[in-house]
Design a protein that fits this description.
alpha/beta; seven-stranded parallel sheet; Rossmann fold; 12 helices; globular
């Protein structure tokens, strides 16, 4: 009976054009990957593989993709944790930071740490990544490093802006507002435009940025940053809409309250924020940079090819909690 069932199923597969096991086996052995596919990290094929036969995901098929990622704001916080995680995943790291003094020395030590992880495939540049002149100067260098192949990821993680109220005796100035919106928001657009013009974003590339609950909740001193975050979300949504047809996706990641250096710049009461968050969060803890880095890593997988124009929450449910402080 089992043999008869097997024969019937084999006939059904043939009638429907479904390969039998023998054909699957031969297909796997005879599968030819182009030079473009050989350039992809080996893990991409493992992640794209079905059991028993080779399967190449639609959005990465035939792509001459590099395994380099570009992180704007790479030395600490979410950007630093993401750089470490992606180096562990085997990616080469291209990073911009803007540090001085002891923090600069820490950034250089961190660069060396990453080089130990991924075999020295790390380039850090200590300059203002939001400046248009910086983009024009360094994009040709990035193109040379990737041999003209598209980046797997462009990640915006710059946390530098004015934290002041919009109104009152001491309120934000136009210059401060414009600077904050550009550095933490619109600079991502100009990076995307310039990289896309040089074909450094291609099918399978990701564009991402970090946002926060302050994008829809008003709080002390957060007004300018909130405006910048909302602008960045709109930019990512539009990038995903315009470039999605080419297999390039764009998403924002909303992290919960995270004890980082950037948080200490927002409010003198940041320690109270952390304690209240632990009470409010359904998982009774704050978000960590490593939590966020793990989400970025997940979104680089082929299985995430169809996630686009979205806000992905990484906060343990914090943004949905109705718990009162």
């Amino acid at each position: 009976m089992e043999r008869a069932f097997h024969n019937r199923m084999s006939g059904f597969r043939r009638s429907k054009g479904i390969p039998t096991e023998g054909k699957l086996h031969r297909r796997r052995e005879n599968t030819h990957y182009s030079n473009a596919n050989r350039a992809l990290p080996e893990r991409a094929f493992h992640l794209c593989s079905g059991k028993g036969f080779a399967y190449i995901c639609p959005l990465t098929k035939g792509v001459n993709m590099s395994d380099w990622v570009l992180i704007l704001g790479c030395s600490t916080g979410h950007g630093g944790a993401t750089a470490r995680r992606l180096a562990q995943d085997g990616y080469g790291i291209l990073g911009f930071h803007f540090d001085r003094g002891e923090v600069k020395r820490q950034a250089l030590a961190f660069r060396d740490e990453l080089a130990e992880i991924n075999g020295g495939r790390v380039h850090f540049w200590n300059t203002n990544a939001a400046a248009l002149e910086t983009m024009d100067e360094y994009i040709p260098k990035i193109e040379e490093i990737t041999a003209g192949k598209p980046l797997k990821l462009l990640l915006h993680s710059i946390a530098f802006g004015t934290t002041m109220n919009l109104l009152g005796e001491k309120h934000v100035t136009r210059k401060q507002m414009d600077m904050t919106i550009h550095v933490m928001g619109t600079s991502l657009l100009y990076w995307t435009q310039k990289l896309h013009d040089r074909n450094l974003l291609g099918r399978g590339s990701r564009v991402m940025g970090f946002t926060s609950e302050g994008n829809y909740v008003a709080m002390e001193g957060y007004g300018p940053v909130s405006v910048a975050k909302v602008a960045m979300e709109a930019i990512l949504r539009q990038i995903g809409w315009e470039l999605g047809q080419f297999g390039i996706t764009a998403n924002a990641i909303q992290a919960g309250v995270t004890p980082t250096r950037a948080l200490t710049k927002i409010s003198d009461r940041w320690e109270d924020w952390v304690e209240r968050t632990r009470y409010r969060n359904p998982m009774r803890r704050t978000t960590t940079p490593e939590d966020v880095a793990n989400v970025v890593s997940l979104l680089l997988r082929p299985e995430a090819d169809f996630i686009n124009c979205s806000i992905v929450y990484c906060d343990g449910g914090e943004h949905r909690s109705g718990r009162i402080y």
